[in-house]
Write a structure and sequence with these properties.
mainly alpha, DNA polymerase, domain 1, three-stranded antiparallel β-sheet, DNA recombination
Length: about 325
């Protein structure tokens, strides 16, 4: 059905001809990409969809549509937007989706892992990006009739996820970090960081927090179903300090966002700058969640009690804290 020939300029040309359908021709830099494209077309014939999907839009154009029609309805819209825009800026964004093969996706994956732009990222980060790219292409393929019969991301090997982080700030590091947060034009930053350390709430949960969810009298925050990562409602008790932070942030307002107009991306950038000013290495905002959870365990709360506060769904998620339980048992044994 298909033929692959090398042109004088060194590139590889694929020609697909089948009775009753329009001939397809595409040119690639490598034989591997050309062969992958030929296989995709053969799959289309097997499924009876040859010629039905539009492969001419670039990945960047597809992402732009996805950002408009799909992303806004998601809880993590802010972080998803900057992830997708980063893909648009990469050379892969200019690739026509009809020519997007597993070989091309694998090259993009490897460049992200190795830091071709000078900033290597973890396997866990690349997996999240691949999951997102896969959904973008599936949406285009199934809902918009754009792309290839086979999602090329499905054919690419995934890197291993990094081990769970167990970074915990020392008391001195917390003091220095919070001082650096205060030394900024962003008055919300020290409030948000300290609230995270007190409650183990996720960054997105804090940023989207509504005044109506905060009960300062009973010292609780009610997170609604759909507003959390697990889509399950939970009630977070507030320490005296956490209560004071929210009271300060809310003031005399009675409705709306606790921090109006704030985005997760803004918090991320402000936190990174504060961390650099503090001279603290290897700390991410999400580490505040691990730090707070560890504190709950050290206070003697049961796993069930901790999970009800943090929103961890399974017992296996609490296993990383079992060494703290072991220390308590050792003390009891004498």
């Amino acid at each position: 059905m298909g033929t692959i020939t090398q042109r004088e300029n060194g590139k590889w040309q694929v020609k697909i001809r089948r009775a009753g359908t329009k001939a397809i021709s595409a040119t690639f830099h490598t034989y591997e990409d050309a062969k992958a494209f030929e296989r995709q077309q053969e799959h289309k014939v097997d499924k009876g969809v040859l010629g039905q999907l539009d492969g001419t839009p670039t990945l960047s154009q597809i992402i732009t549509r996805y950002l408009t029609e799909v992303t806004p309805s998601k809880k993590g819209a802010d972080s998803e937007e900057w992830r997708l825009k980063a893909i648009q800026r990469h050379w892969i964004g200019s690739t026509q989706v009809g020519k997007l093969t597993s070989t091309i996706v694998a090259k993009w994956r490897d460049e992200r892992l190795q830091g071709a732009d000078g900033r290597p990222v973890s396997g866990s980060t690349v997996n999240r990006e691949m999951n997102l790219l896969h959904h973008v292409l599936e949406t285009a393929r199934k809902d918009w009739g754009i792309g290839t019969a086979v999602n090329p991301v499905s054919e690419v090997r995934r890197p291993k996820n990094n081990p769970s982080r167990d970074r915990r700030l020392t008391d001195e590091e917390k003091a220095v970090l919070l001082e650096a947060c205060r030394d900024t034009r962003k008055p919300y930053l020290p409030q948000i960081v300290e609230l995270a350390l007190e409650t183990a709430m996720r960054q997105g949960e804090i940023v989207s927090l509504m005044i109506e969810q905060v009960d300062l009298k009973d010292s609780v925050v009610s997170l609604k179903a759909g507003a959390t990562k697990t889509d399950e409602a939970r009630t977070v008790p507030l320490s005296t300090r956490a209560n004071a932070i929210l009271k300060e942030a809310i003031g005399d307002r009675t409705e709306g966002r606790v921090w109006p107009g704030l985005t997760s991306e803004a918090v991320k950038k402000a936190f990174i700058r504060a961390r650099e000013r503090a001279g603290i290495e290897n700390v991410k905002f999400h580490d505040t969640r691990h730090d707070a959870t560890t504190s709950f365990v050290e206070l003697g709360l049961t796993d069930t009690e901790v999970m009800s506060i943090t929103g961890h769904k399974t017992q296996s998620m609490m296993r990383r804290y079992t060494h703290l339980r072991a220390k308590d048992l050792a003390k009891k044994l004498g």
